[in-house]
Amino acid sequence: MAKLVAKTYGDALFELALEEDKVDVFVEETNGILQVLQENAELHKLMNHPKITKEEKNNVMEEIFKGRISEELTGFIHIIVTKDRYNEITYIFEYFLDKVKEYKNIGLAYVSAAVELNETQKKELMNRLLQITKYKQIDIVYSVDTALIGGMVIRIGDRVIDSSIRTKLYEMSKNLSKIQL
């Protein structure tokens, strides 16, 4: 359900950003809103309290953001609160940001390697990923997973490139178990 809500509202915000020609402005403001929401756990408790009315919640959000973000985003937050979708606000804004990245051909890759990659390897990997994908730019999140033994696993969206030694050993053992002597 949260995914459907995030998609519906995120798509609406994206369309509004395109219509108003404020994609970059909305991205900057959305990142700021997300930062405020993450840093203030008390605000989250307040906004989810059942005894506080929607009108009071809207007043709180207006007090925080009015004059700091565009009128369109202030109105968008008002709609989210009025429709009882505040719990999904983070997912909505994250979906919007992902949609903008897709629109601008900016990819996101998760790379797990057995050892820490040096700067030259990271640069070569980025260049190779730019060659094999449609993206003009790729943001890469690196992590080290010693269980891979060697090689790396790359995830871009729903695609996975697995060149780890662990997977190759698993496939070999699977193939060897099929052989009858």
- How many strands, what sense, and barrel or not for the largest sheet? 4 strands, mixed
Helical content class: 55-70%
Q: In the CATH classification, which architecture of the largest domain applies?
A: Orthogonal Bundle
| N-C termini distance | 52 Å
Oligomer: single chain
Beta-strand proportion: 5-15%
CATH topology of the largest domain: Peroxidase, domain 1
Integer count of domains: 2
CATH superfamily of the largest domain: N-terminal domain of the delta subunit of the F1F0-ATP synthase
* Integer average pLDDT: 93
Number of helices: 8
| Element-by-element helix/strand order | HHHHHHEHEEEH
Shape: elongated
DSSP, total strands: 4
**Strand order in the largest sheet:** 2-1-3-4
Q: Can you tell me the CATH class of the largest domain?
A: Mainly Alpha
Structural class label? alpha+beta
Radius of gyration: 22 Å
Low-confidence stretches: none
